[in-house]
């Protein structure tokens, strides 16, 4: 037996194996702890718990490193495309030219939605938040594609993965168009993934829509930056939902629901709202004081894993400048507030001591707004991009022989057993 950790409790001593991955902290394998020592571990929020083995994404939060299948995020953002990153996450390797061509064809030819699907949107209130539409509409995919919901069949798992990656932009664009009260725009097979998405969002029947290569590249890079992030809350939700054998469309809908929260994907919307609320550079010190007095949090700051600059935030900041320059908004007052706020926070002991740095959401709101999206769409774009991460992690889980239904335990602190009391005696 290799290295072990010993746990002694109530006269029982258990030797627990230590597992080592390619990188990252060693892991104490506690699987036999309950059976041998009749004791649980307690870790709300999973701050010290590895919930699975994975070969997809690695984060070193202290060094600010993010790797997908071993490739650094900044290299992927600079040199790759979102679809190529999708292939990489799903299949484990970068595709050769032929593999990429086939993959691109598969995704492109799955972008259309079943015609009846469009009637679904009309059921939502006109002012429905696009994320509310996403949660419902993506779950509804399971009622349209019965031929790819058998999770035991590897072929069906691939088809449902391709369908989800391909149809998310079409659904997201429809959620946006419905929110704006404009007619739906159908996908076109001669356009790239991101070009097609921007066209479905921004073209109107009354005029021709011309792609802008700088903005298309920025959109693609934003998708790359959000593609996967290891065992975050929404990914863990997808894995947990999938562990019961639920179909992939339902599992992704569960992931979208979790992503919506302001501590997770909802932070990009909240970060932009916060900058707007601050209003001007002069108001920053008062706002920062409010954060220190714990009246509110600095949105787009802090991360459970990164205790150094989020590597995605660096690329996002650069993309933000490029987009603002392209659309002629380099003097965007919100950008000025963000830059100043970042400078003040990074030098303030409150933030330094707690290792709070800007995360990916700090600059994404300003960038997405410059691309033409309202704040309500920001988390939808995150969901669109994260779908490939969710589905890759879901597939890895289903294909893992050690996979079991997720079933945590608890410390019960409620009432001890007692007898029922009739209503007239209470
Ligand atoms: N502003 C002010 N203080 C903060 C913040 C913040 N954004 N984040 C953490 N802290 C403080 C917190 O009050 C605590 O201080 P103390 O030790 O004195 O009580 C300390 O830092 C540790 O905080 P925590 O809540 O234990 O940290 P966590 O790992 O549970 O939370 C987080 C991580 C992302 C939920 C949190 O940093 C946060 O709420 N950030 C703002 C929301 C946000 O930007 N979320 C997007 C995350 S990146 C995109 C994604 O993956 O979804």
From TrEMBL:
Domain of life per record: Bacteria
Entries under CDD domains matching the protein: EcCS_like (cd06114)
Pfam families given in the database record: Citrate_synt (PF00285)
Alphabetical UniProt keywords: Acyltransferase, Transferase, Tricarboxylic acid cycle
Keyword Transmembrane helix among record annotations: no
Stored InterPro entries: Citrate_synth-like_lrg_a-sub, Citrate_synth-like_sm_a-sub, Citrate_synthase, Citrate_synthase_AS, Citrate_synthase_bac-typ, Citrate_synthase_sf, Citrate_synthase_typ-I
Catalytic activity: oxaloacetate + acetyl-CoA + H2O = citrate + CoA + H(+)
Keyword DNA-binding appears in the UniProt entry: no
Gene3D superfamilies: 2.20.28.60, Citrate Synthase, domain 1, Cytochrome P450-Terp, domain 2
Family in the record: Belongs to the citrate synthase family.
UniProt protein name: Citrate synthase
Species annotation: Phenylobacterium koreense
